[in-house]
């Protein structure tokens, strides 16, 4: 069970497909600008006018962790993220097969699995995102905002009805 | 190499061969990249007198040292060639994701030479090149071609291609990447078509590295801060797109209407950025690494003009709107969509259609030539003519030559609103004198993005100048032109310059490429690029006499609005401009100045 904690959250409707998150991430993690090294990736569906970053959600029961045969993947309970230890990773790709979201990937130049570790609490992608499509906040915030929107819809149906 | 990748790709389309060359770092420092370095290669390698459609012309796609980094809006590339519209150097800038991907694929620049025997496209992935058969996509729209190429190659690749207009050598055919971003002006797409080259496709897993990581990260975050602090880049452009300018420019009395016969458009509100947001905006879309996001995704549901597209931005909104007397935003959006899928420049297209409308209303051309009536304000005929240009059908075949050749054909040169045969963008300089000087002296013919004087003269950035005043404008224009040459060469978007200028760009360049340079030297670099382009044009046969404006705008004053009674006072500004540039009275750079610039 997660306790209340800050997480990287995603607001797809705010994404403009600029991919600055990919640049911020790859630069911080590798010292180079290279989207294929980025732990966050932006997907652009032009014909649907839909763009969104996709990033690891740090599963409580992480598929990648369970699939890893070399003990390279573990839960870091301090910052509450699932981490890959590159020293132990053998590049077998089992984690990439196990993850249902495709958010842990194999980075060929290093021969290792890579995934988001939320930069130990200071996520660079969030800092680089110009529109707030990525945020670092309480994990319940997006659902609370959505639920508030749902609640707001009741306003019109209740209008004019005095208790 | 830091900043730059350090590799150039040279492709001989005639022989079907390619090779990789090393980038000369000293040359790169001298011309930065993009527009500057591309122009240098063009200047050194082709005869400026060459027929633009000859296999001896070259087409260069060039990124800058900042392209592909996190510098603000650093996804730009330039297409450089000799223009079939103007006969000058053409260098057209484009955003989207193509430029950055070109660097990830391993190249700063792609030099395209010769002419393929049959339609081909190039697939460039991680330093390797494949020539691919394009016979199946020749004739297809840019969107159809892009989809098919992506299905044949890799879904993550980026495609820069031409449409039917480029294939049919429409003189202002453009190169389209990301389906809606364009290296738009001066006919760079027509040159690509003349080489039987349908597309250049790039895909890469490589990196762009920088010299000083800490300094670059700081410069990046500083850049974001400045973009956020500036009202144009943080509010105006993201909220309303570039068409935020429609109401502003119209209210300033410099919104050219009906082929520059008026300067205030009564229908401006109906085609404004505000109305666009209200009626057809779906969402914003940004180019690579851009914190501004001026792109508009729009959906028109009106069955007559139905389209799902990006844009129109200010220029296309104006050229196919006010300039044609059209106040129908649905029709303008459709015409803009046609420009994207058929692949040509909406500015030249709109102004050329407007020119045709004036010829028609004056009885110089009739139903006989056009095949139907061609009146200002007729939205349907505007859309029809735009489509006809793309396919060179009927009267569109004549319009596809541009307004200069159109009026020449019918013996009335006074009605082409162009400089050096390239059509004006949407600012009437009679009410903004600096912009006028910039149009007259721009190295690729009439153009607003060679030195955007609207910024100080109308928008008040970085300081507010009196738009009617001619004093000091020569100096402002020179500074803006030189700075813009730097911006276009570095790989970032010109729109950044609302928020920051030379010092910030210098910080980016120093940190990225590890070059040591003062601000003065950076501006000198811009001046060097400007003079190089000038030299190309002079060698191509142009002279100082080509730095002129259409007579109507010099002799006839503005008839209404805030600029009423104004004419262009070019004669007051041009001699001073030549002097500041270190050019003689004929507009030829002096030996001393060229030596000083290292040319």
* CATH architecture level-2 label of the largest domain in chain B: 4-Layer Sandwich
**Based on CA inertia axes, which overall geometry of chain A fits?**
globular
CATH third-tier fold name of the largest domain in chain B:
Aldehyde Ferredoxin Oxidoreductase,  A, domain 1
Q: If you consult CATH, what is the topology of the largest domain in chain A?
A: Alpha-Beta Plaits
Oligomer: heterodimer
Q: Assign a percent range to the helix content of chain B.
A: 40-55%
* Low-confidence blocks of residues of chain A: none
* Shape category of chain B: globular
Q: What is the SS-derived class of chain A?
A: alpha+beta
Count the DSSP helices of chain B: 25
Distance between the termini of chain B: 25 Å
The main sheet of chain B comes to:
6 strands, mixed
Going by CATH, what is the homologous superfamily of the largest domain in chain B? Answer: Aldehyde ferredoxin oxidoreductase, N-terminal domain
> Which pair of protein chains has the largest interface, and what are the residue counts?
A-B, 28 and 36 residues
Query: How many domains would you count in the coordinates of chain A?
Result: 2
Query: What is the top-level CATH class of the largest domain in chain B?
Result: Alpha Beta
Biggest pleated-sheet summary of chain A: 2 strands, antiparallel
For the largest sheet of chain B, list the strands in their spatial order: 2-1-6-3-4-5
Query: What fraction, in percent, of the residue positions of chain A are helical?
Result: 25-40%
Q: Could you walk me through the main structural features you see in this protein, from its secondary elements to its overall organization?
A:
The complex is a heterodimer of chains A (163) and B (599). Chain A is built from five helices and eight strands. Chain A has helices at 20-30, 63-67, 94-98, 124-128, 141-158; strands spanning 6-10, 41-45, 50-54, 73-76, 81-84, 105-107, 112-114, 134-138. In chain A, the strands form four sheets. Chain A has a two-stranded antiparallel ribbon. Chain A has a two-stranded antiparallel ribbon with strand order 2-3. In chain A, strands 4-5 form a two-stranded antiparallel sheet. Chain B folds into three domains: 7-203, Aldehyde ferredoxin oxidoreductase, N-terminal domain (Aldehyde Ferredoxin Oxidoreductase,  A, domain 1); 239-423, Aldehyde Ferredoxin Oxidoreductase Protein, subunit A, domain 2; 429-596, Aldehyde Ferredoxin Oxidoreductase Protein, subunit A, domain 3 (Orthogonal Bundle), CATH 1.10.599.10. In chain B, strand 16 (418-419) and strand 17 (422-423) form a beta hairpin. The relative contact order of chain B is 0.13. The mean pLDDT of chain B is 97. The interface between A and B is medium-sized, with 28 and 36 residues.
């Amino acid at each position: 069970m997660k306790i209340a904690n800050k997480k990287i959250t995603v607001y797809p409707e705010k994404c403009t497909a600029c991919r600055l998150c990919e640049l911020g991430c790859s630069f911080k993690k590798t010292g180079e600008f290279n989207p294929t090294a980025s732990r966050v990736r932006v997907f652009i569906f032009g014909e649907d006018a839909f763009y969104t970053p996709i990033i690891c959600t740090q599963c409580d029961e992480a598929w990648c962790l369970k699939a890893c045969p070399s003990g390279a993947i573990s839960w870091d309970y301090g910052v509450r993220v699932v981490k890959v230890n590159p020293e132990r990773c053998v590049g077998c790709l089992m984690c990439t097969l196990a993850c249902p979201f495709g958010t842990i990937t194999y980075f060929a130049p290093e021969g290792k699995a890579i995934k988001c570790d939320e930069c130990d609490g200071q996520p660079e992608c969030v800092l680089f995102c110009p529109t707030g499509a990525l945020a670092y906040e309480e994990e319940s915030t997006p659902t609370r905002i959505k639920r508030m929107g749902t609640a707001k819809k009741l306003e019109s149906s209740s209008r004019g009805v005095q208790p | 190499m830091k900043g730059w990748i350090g590799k150039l790709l040279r492709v001989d389309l005639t022989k079907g061969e390619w090779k990789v060359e090393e980038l000369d770092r000293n040359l790169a420092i001298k011309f930065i990249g993009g527009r500057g370095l591309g122009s240098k290669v063009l200047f050194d390698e082709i005869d400026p007198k060459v027929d633009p459609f000859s296999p001896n012309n070259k087409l260069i796609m060039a990124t800058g040292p900042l392209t592909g980094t996190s510098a603000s809006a650093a996804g730009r590339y330039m297409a450089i060639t000799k223009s079939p519209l103007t006969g000058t150097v053409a260098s057209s800038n484009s955003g989207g994701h193509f430029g950055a991907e070109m660097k990830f694929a391993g190249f700063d620049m792609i030099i395209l030479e010769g002419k393929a025997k049959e339609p081909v496209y190039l697939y460039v992935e991680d330093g390797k090149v494949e020539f691919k058969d394009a016979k199946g996509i020749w004739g297809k729209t840019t969107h159809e071609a892009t989809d098919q190429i992506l299905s044949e190659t890799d879904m993550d690749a980026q495609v820069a291609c031409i449409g039917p207009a480029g294939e049919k050598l429409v003189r202002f055919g453009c190169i389209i990447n990301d389906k809606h971003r364009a290296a738009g002006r001066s006919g760079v797409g027509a040159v690509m078509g003349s080489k039987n080259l349908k597309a250049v496709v790039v895909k890469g897993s490589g990196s762009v590295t920088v010299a000083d990581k800490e300094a670059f990260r700081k410069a990046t975050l500083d850049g974001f801060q400045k973009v956020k602090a500036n009202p144009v880049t943080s509010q105006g452009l993201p909220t309303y797109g570039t068409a935020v300018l429609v109401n502003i420019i119209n209210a300033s009395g410099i919104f050219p209407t009906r082929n520059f016969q008026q300067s205030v458009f009564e229908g401006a509100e109906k085609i404004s950025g505000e109305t666009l947001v209200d009626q057809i905006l779906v969402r914003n879309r940004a180019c690579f690494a851009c914190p501004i996001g001026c792109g508009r995704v729009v959906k028109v549901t009106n069955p007559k003009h139905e389209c799902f597209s990006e844009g129109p931005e200010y220029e296309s909104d104006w050229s196919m709107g006010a300039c044609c007397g059209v106040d129908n935003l649905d029709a303008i959006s459709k015409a803009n969509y046609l420009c994207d899928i058929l692949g040509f420049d909406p500015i030249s297209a709109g102004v050329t259609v407007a020119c045709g409308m004036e010829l028609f209303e004056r009885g110089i051309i009739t139903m006989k030539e056009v095949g139907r009536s061609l009146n200002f304000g007729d939205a349907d005929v505007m859309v029809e003519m735009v489509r006809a240009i793309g396919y060179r059908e009927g009267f569109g075949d004549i319009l596809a030559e541009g307004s200069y050749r159109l009026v020449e054909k019918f013996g009335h040169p006074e009605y082409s609103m162009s400089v050096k045969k390239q059509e004006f963008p949407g600012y009437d300089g009679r009410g903004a004198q600096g912009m006028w000087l910039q149009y007259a002296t721009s190295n690729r013919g009439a153009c607003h993005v060679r030195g955007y004087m609207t910024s100080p003269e109308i928008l008040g950035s970085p300081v507010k100048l009196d738009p009617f005043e001619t004093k000091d404008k020569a100096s402002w224009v020179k500074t803006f032109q030189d700075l813009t040459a730097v911006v276009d060469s570095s790989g970032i978007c010109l729109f950044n310059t609302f928020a920051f200028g030379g010092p910030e760009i210098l910080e980016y360049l120093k940190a990225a490429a590890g070059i040591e340079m003062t601000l003065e030297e950076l501006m000198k670099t811009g001046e060097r690029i400007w003079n190089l382009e000038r030299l190309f044009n002079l060698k191509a046969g142009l002279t100082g006499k080509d730095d002129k404006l259409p007579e109507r705008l010099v002799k006839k004053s503005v008839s209404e609005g805030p600029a009423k009674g104004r004419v262009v006072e070019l004669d007051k500004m041009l001699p001073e401009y030549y002097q500041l540039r270190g050019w003689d009275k004929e507009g030829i750079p002096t030996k001393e100045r060229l030596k000083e610039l290292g040319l």
